[in-house]
Amino acid sequence: MSAPSALITGGTSGIGKATAELLHSRGYRVMVTGLDHLDGTGLPEDVLVVRADARSLPDIDHAVEQARRRFGSLDLLFLNAGVSRPGPIEAIDEEAFDALFDINVKGTFFTLRKALPLLNEGASVVFTVGAGEGVGSAMAAAKGALLPLMRSLALELAPARIRVNAVSPGLINTPAYGKMGVSREMIEAWAEDVPLGRVGAPADIAEAVAFLASDAASYITGDDLTVSGGVGVHTRP
Length: 237
Hints:
Strand content: 15-25%
Oligomer: single chain
Protein name: Oxidoreductase
InterPro entries: NAD(P)-bd_dom_sf (IPR036291), SDR_fam (IPR002347)
Organism: Streptomyces tsukubensis
Number of domains: 1
Keywords: Oxidoreductase
Mean pLDDT: 90
Helix content: 25-40%
GO molecular function: oxidoreductase activity
């Protein structure tokens, strides 16, 4: 019996990279896609790294074809590629709005559509969603579109025993914050509002994805697993 296989979009840094490393350590054959750090991911040599822009259907076709050639089929599709454009409505122009929906929503939808023939019976699909509140209306709308999509697909794909779930990270220390000009000091200050008292690590999300992909989660579909250190449950007194 061959080792399980996983395709991770947005897998060259942050949460996607941590998930690739964890799954590889547990015996998965892994392929990741991305646009950044392709030559210096630091991933194990046998992890296949493919350049792909999540908003480009030809890029998605190429990535799925590479997965088919490398693995033949997939046991996990982790739809993690996404961008953040936080800000008030006045700060969001058409380019930023289109990027949010083209990458986070369109890219997720068509990657799953095109990879669907590769998914084994009993395979797992995991979306990265994240809490949209407090980050601006456009970003909240893009992220919010993913949850009903995930739940609808969970029902649609259940007869094929393909499970579809989401993971929603809270405050996780990833390179995305640096790209938005957020300093380490700012992140640590925000951590004071996290009930568990710390910033999350990409590995925290990787463990959640690995669980959703495992047989231990074989009766879970259509669910959103929030990994936030307690944010949204209550605040510290």
